[in-house]
Specification:
Number of strands: 5
Number of domains: 1
Number of helices: 5
Largest sheet: 3 strands, antiparallel
Helix content: 55-70%
Radius of gyration: 20 Å
Length: about 180
């Protein structure tokens, strides 16, 4: 028999999710979809690629791999401050992406009396007969949404600046 890991009382899970909570989950997914595209587009222009050509290379690549490539580019160009910033960005991304991944890739089982949402990711815990269970606070969900939106806006501004400079004849095809 398979059981769930963790100390959550399964009987306490209310399967009804309020509409406002569902809308918040949608906002997280949409914010992170934009973030994913923005990082891919930024990687493309950082390597001096047309956005359509960059999509071939960076379009299906995971965000941590994109950030690693950007870090390497900046290190090779001697931009150690940028490389350090990208290292922090990757760590922050990995922290906030745990919430996003639960929302996007796990079954939403319901809500606990304390407000946490219960997700059932279908993955191994490393123990036979045990599946994981994640309980995510609404505060963590809000933080992941806000972080994704803010970072997307910052990256979009970098992309817009680069594309405007290219139109004006001042394109610098190395990382910003």
């Amino acid at each position: 028999m398979t059981r769930l890991a963790g100390d959550i009382d399964i009987a306490a899970i209310n399967p009804h999710i309020p509409r406002r909570v569902k809308l918040r989950l949608l906002e997280v997914v949409l914010a992170w979809a934009r973030l994913d595209a923005a990082i891919a587009q930024f990687a493309a222009i950082s390597f001096g690629l047309d956005l359509s050509v960059g999509a071939i290379i960076f379009g299906k690549m995971g965000v941590p791999d994109r950030v690693n490539r950007l870090r390497e580019l900046n290190k090779q160009l001697g931009r150690t401050d940028n490389a350090a910033s990208l290292k922090k960005l990757k760590a922050d991304y990995e922290t906030h992406s745990q919430v996003r991944n639960s929302i996007a890739h796990a079954t939403l089982a319901g809500q606990l009396p304390d407000g946490r949402l219960v997700f059932l990711p279908y993955q191994s815990t490393g123990k036979a007969g045990v599946l994981p269970i994640d309980a995510v606070t609404l505060e963590d969900i809000a933080a992941a949404e806000l972080w994704g939106k803010r970072l997307s806006i910052s990256i979009d501004q970098l992309i817009d600046n680069h594309l405007q400079n290219a139109e004006d004849g001042f394109a610098d095809h190395s990382a910003q």
